C-alpha cells in the first residue's frame, strides 16, 4: 500500500525521525490557513507547496513550488489542486491532484552549507536481508545516479537476527562525508529510520532528499513509503491511510471482492488460483507469443459467483482479446470449478465476447473437462500446459 508524502512523514516523526514539517490542504483557502499555522509553529516565512499523489518526480512536472508569501500560497495551491500532474512515474495522462502539502522551507536563502543525500530502506530479495541504500547525490533520480556514477551509491545490509548495528549507522554517516555534530545527527537519523521501516512493516522507505542543514540538522525533506499489505492487520491505523482515489478503480473493485488483481498491458486475461500458478500462467502466455493482460488470483475457492466477478473485472479491460482460466484442483475440486465457469458464462450471456480457454488439472479433472465440453458453451478446454498454449494461439489466430 502506497502512502502520500505527508502520511509517510507522520510515521517517520512518530519514530523520532526529524522531518520537514507541514500541513495538508484540500483547497487553496485551506492552504493559506495551513501556511499561517505553520508560520506560528516554525517561524517559517516561505512555504513549499507540494502536490500529494502516489508518484515521484513531482517537481519536474510542476507539482512542487516555493511560495514567498500567503498570496503566492493561495495562487500556487489553486493551480496545483485539480491539475493532472504528469511525471516520469505517472500514466501518460497524469494523475489528478486532490490535495497539497504546505511544508516549511528548510533551505535558508543564500546558504551554501547545506547538503542533500539519498537514502532508502528495502528488502534485498537476493540475500533475504533488509538493505539501506544511500548516496551523496540527493535530489536526483537514483536510477540516473546508478547509470552515470554507480560508485556514488552505497549499500549496507542488515543481518535479520541482530538488526541494525551502531557501527553500520556510523559507517553510513562516514561514507556520506559527515563529521562533528552532523555525523552524530545522521547516526540518530539512520537508526530511527530503520526502526520506522521495521516497526510499520514497510516494503520500502525512500527519502530523497535527506537534508543536512547549515546548523547540522538531518531532515527528511521527502518521504516515499510503501507498506506491506499482508501486514496491515497489525496496523489498523495505517490501513485507514489507504487512498483509493490514487489506485486504479479496477484494482480497488477486485480487492473489495477479495481477489488479488494487478492490471497489466497485454491482451490475454488470466484467471488462476494461487500466485505461483498465476506467474507460471503468465509465462505460458508469453511462451505462446502474447502478453498477459492481468494477474488475477481467485484464491482457494472458485464458485460461480466468484468466477463471474472475476470475469467481469477482466472484461473491463478493453485490450483483453481472450481469457485463459488455469485452475489446479487441490483444495477445490475441478468439477465444481468447471460448473462454476459454466454457470457464470450462462449468467453473463452476451457480456462475454472473447474466447475462453479453460485448463483444469487435479481432483476430478476428467469430469471437469466433460462438464466443459458438454456445456454447449463456446469454451475451449485443455489438460496440459502445452495444450493450453496451443489453445491460446488457436483462439487469437
UniProtKB/TrEMBL annotation:
Residues annotated to bind ATP: 50, 57-59, 106, 116
Record-listed E.C. numbers: 6.2.1.5
Membrane-spanning segments: none
Record-annotated ATP-citrate synthase/succinyl-CoA ligase C-terminal domain positions: 271-387
The reaction(s) this protein catalyses: GTP + succinate + CoA = succinyl-CoA + GDP + phosphate; succinate + ATP + CoA = succinyl-CoA + ADP + phosphate
Signal sequence bounds: none
UniProt pathway: Carbohydrate metabolism; tricarboxylic acid cycle; succinate from succinyl-CoA (ligase route): step 1/1
One GO cellular component term: cytosol
Cofactor(s) required, per the database record: Mg(2+)
Enzyme class: ligase
Keywords annotated in UniProt: ATP-binding, Ligase, Magnesium, Metal-binding, Nucleotide-binding, Tricarboxylic acid cycle
Gene Ontology molecular function: any one: succinate-CoA ligase (ADP-forming) activity
Pfam families in alphabetical order: ATP-grasp_2, Ligase_CoA
Cofactor note: Binds 1 Mg(2+) ion per subunit.
Residues bound to substrate: 273, 330-332
Biological processes annotated in GO: succinyl-CoA metabolic process; tricarboxylic acid cycle
Cytoplasm among keywords: no
Domain ATP-grasp fold succinyl-CoA synthetase-type as annotated: residue spans: 2-210
InterPro entries linked to this entry: ATP-grasp_succ-CoA_synth-type (IPR013650), ATP_grasp_subdomain_1 (IPR013815), SUCC_ACL_C (IPR005811), Succ_CoA_ligase-like_bsu (IPR005809), Succinyl-CoA_synth-like (IPR016102)
Residues holding Mg(2+): 208, 222
Assembly, per entry: Heterotetramer of two alpha and two beta subunits.
Function according to Swiss-Prot or TrEMBL: Succinyl-CoA synthetase functions in the citric acid cycle (TCA), coupling the hydrolysis of succinyl-CoA to the synthesis of either ATP or GTP and thus represents the only step of substrate-level phosphorylation in the TCA. The beta subunit provides nucleotide specificity of the enzyme and binds the substrate succinate, while the binding sites for coenzyme A and phosphate are found in the alpha subunit.
Annotated NCBIfam families: PRK00696.1, sucCoAbeta
UniProt record similarity statement: Belongs to the succinate/malate CoA ligase beta subunit family.
Annotated protein name in UniProt: Succinate--CoA ligase [ADP-forming] subunit beta
Organism listed in the record: Paenimyroides marinum
Amino acid at each position: 500500500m502506497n502512502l502520500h508524502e505527508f502520511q509517510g512523514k507522520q510515521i517517520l516523526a512518530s519514530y523520532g525521525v526529524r522531518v520537514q514539517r507541514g500541513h495538508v490542504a484540500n483547497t487553496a483557502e485551506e492552504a493559506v490557513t495551513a501556511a499561517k499555522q505553520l508560520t506560528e509553529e516554525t517561524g517559517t516565512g516561505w512555504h513549499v507547496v507540494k502536490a500529494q499523489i502516489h508518484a515521484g518526480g513531482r517537481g519536474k512536472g510542476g507539482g512542487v513550488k516555493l511560495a514567498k508569501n500567503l498570496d503566492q500560497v493561495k495562487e500556487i495551491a489553486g493551480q496545483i489542486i485539480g491539475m493532472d500532474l504528469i511525471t516520469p512515474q505517472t500514466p501518460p495522462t497524469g494523475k489528478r491532484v486532490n490535495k497539497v502539502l504546505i511544508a516549511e522551507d528548510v533551505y535558508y536563502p543564500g546558504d551554501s552549507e547545506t547538503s542533500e543525500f539519498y537514502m532508502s530502506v528495502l528488502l534485498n530479495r537476493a540475500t533475504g536481508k533488509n538493505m539501506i541504500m544511500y548516496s551523496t547525490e540527493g535530489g536526483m533520480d537514483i536510477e540516473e545516479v546508478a547509470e552515470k556514477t554507480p560508485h556514488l551509491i552505497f549499500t549496507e545490509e542488515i543481518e535479520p537476527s541482530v538488526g541494525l548495528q551502531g557501527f553500520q549507522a556510523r559507517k553510513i554517516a562516514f561514507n556520506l562525508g559527515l563529521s562533528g555534530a552532523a555525523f552524530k545527527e545522521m547516526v540518530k537519523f539512520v537508526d530511527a529510520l530503520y526502526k520506522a521501516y521495521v516497526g510499520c512493516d514497510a516494503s520500502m522507505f525512500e527519502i530523497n532528499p535527506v537534508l543536512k542543514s547549515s546548523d547540522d540538522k538531518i531532515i527528511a525533506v521527502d518521504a516515499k513509503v510503501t507498506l506491506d499489505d499482508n501486514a496491515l492487520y497489525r496496523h489498523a491505523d495505517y490501513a485507514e491511510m489507504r487512498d483509493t482515489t490514487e489506485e486504479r478503480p479496477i484494482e480497488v473493485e477486485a480487492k473489495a471482492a477479495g481477489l488479488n488483481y494487478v492490471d497489466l498491458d497485454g491482451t490475454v486475461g488470466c484467471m488462476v488460483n494461487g500466485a505461483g500458478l498465476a506467474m507460471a500462467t503468465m509465462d505460458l502466455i508469453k511462451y505462446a507469443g502474447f502478453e498477459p493482460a492481468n494477474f488475477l488470483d481467485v484464491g482457494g475457492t472458485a464458485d460461480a459467483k466468484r468466477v463471474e466477478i472475476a470475469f467481469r473485472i477482466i472484461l473491463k479491460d478493453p485490450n483483453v482479446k481472450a481469457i485463459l482460466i488455469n485452475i489446479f484442483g487441490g483444495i477445490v475440486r475441478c468439477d465444481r470449478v468447471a460448473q462454476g465457469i459454466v454457470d457464470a458464462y450462462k449468467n453473463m450471456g452476451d457480456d462475454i465476447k472473447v474466447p475462453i480457454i479453460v485448463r483444469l488439472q487435479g481432483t476430478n479433472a476428467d469430469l471437469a473437462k466433460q462438464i466443459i465440453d458438454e456445456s454447449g458453451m463456446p469454451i475451449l478446454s485443455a489438460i496440459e500446459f502445452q495444450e493450453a498454449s496451443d489453445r491460446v494461439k488457436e483462439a487469437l489466430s
